[in-house]
Amino acid sequence: MSISEDHKRFRDIVKGKIKENLKKYVSQGELIGKREKEFVKIPVPQIDMPTFRYGPKQQGGVGQGQGKPGEGLGQDGEEAGQGQQAGNAPGEHQLEMDVTMDELAEILGQALELPRIEPKGSHQIKSQKNRYSGLAPVGPEGLKHFKSVYKQALKRQIASGSYDPHNPKILPIRRDFRYRTFKTVMKPQTQAVIIYIMDVSGSMGDEQKEIVRLESFWINAWLKKHYKGLESRYIIHDAAAKEVDEETFFKTAESGGTLISSAYKLAKELIEKKYPPHEWNIYIFQFSDGDNWSADDTKLCMDMLKNYFLVNTNLFCYGQVESRYGSGQFLKDLNAEFSKDERMVTSSISSKDKILDSIKQFLGKGK
Question: Domains (ranges, CATH) in the chain?
Answer without folding.
Answer: 1-49+94-113 (no CATH), 126-186 (no CATH), 192-363 (3.40.50.410)
